[in-house]
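Posting this for the archive.
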Amino acid sequence: MPRRFQPKDPIAKFAPDVISAYLEHIVGIQNVPFACEARMGLQDAEADFLIAVATGNAGAVPLAKKRDPFQHGASKLGRNDPLYLRQRQEVHEVPRKEVRRLAQDWPLL
């Protein structure tokens, strides 16, 4: 956040108090998970923030590297493709009488 201010900007000294008041306001109107950690982080970073603004050494703005789109290495399979992990099994038609006989021999528990 020090990059948002000019070096030795007089308004920068109020930024930690404004952010802390905003956090307290948000905590007052809704549930904020990890609010205690946010308060501690603001307290810990306040001195470094003020030094960075006073010296004008806020660091370089990191540029995002353009990434190549994700390329999956596996062969492309569609929803109608056969399963690739096992051999395609031939389906044999079972006569209806045989199905009924098997159902009678194997009752459900």
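The mean pLDDT is 77. Residues 35-55 form the longest helix (21 residues).
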